[in-house]
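Exam prep: given the inputs below (a chain plus S-adenosylmethionine), describe the expected output before reading on.
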Amino acid sequence: MNMQQHWEAVYGAKAPDQVSWFRPHLETSLALIEHAAHGNQAATIVDVGGGASTLVDDLLARGYRNLTVLDISQAALDVARRRLGERGESVQWLRADVTQARLPMASVDVWHDRAVFHFLTSAEQRLGYVRTVTNALKPGGHVVIGTFGPAGPTKCSGLDVVRYDSEALSREFGEKFRLIESAIEMHTTPSGASQQFLYCHFAMAGGAAD
Ligand SMILES: C[S@@+](CC[C@H](N)C(=O)[O-])C[C@H]1O[C@@H](n2cnc3c(N)ncnc32)[C@H](O)[C@@H]1O
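Solution:
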């Protein structure tokens, strides 16, 4: 299956607030990103698979000014861009497949992903993702990632997913990444279903503490 076609069709067919992963605000992501950025509003933050989510709106409203939203779907990026209008002009919008993307080396302070990594069902895709994030992060940079938890759904958007606990997710990222904190969130979908998410905050080796 061509993944870009799949996601373009999803965003072409559904209103942004009707997809199962919609939340008016990504509160847990915001809290973990603020912790990872240590209040530095100049931090370079990339929202991977950001889709049409309001995270970028909320980060701009908190004063963060070096923001990139990367997504495989141009339609998703267009929704967010249109919603933000002039406020989104400083944001870099990047249509790319994260498993193959090449971001500028050692340029990112905080990498955020909510509900993308769990779609990577082959080891090759996951290795490609970890290669991308390892190259893109500054030494000591941070990863804030949300996946379905051990009791989460086995499918999303018609696609199979992999569910993680914090140990399994740590193993995927490997020894360069140290787990700082993790949290479980119960997400209620627009149709009222409950989905378990796991959030992890990792720091990559190379910072002052290493
Ligand atoms: C479940 S949605 C989550 C969207 C957003 N992060 C949120 O929490 O509202 C998954 C998003 O990841 C994007 N996506 C899926 N596979 C991707 C890939 N390989 N590279 C980049 N983006 C991808 C999809 O287009 C979609 O916007």
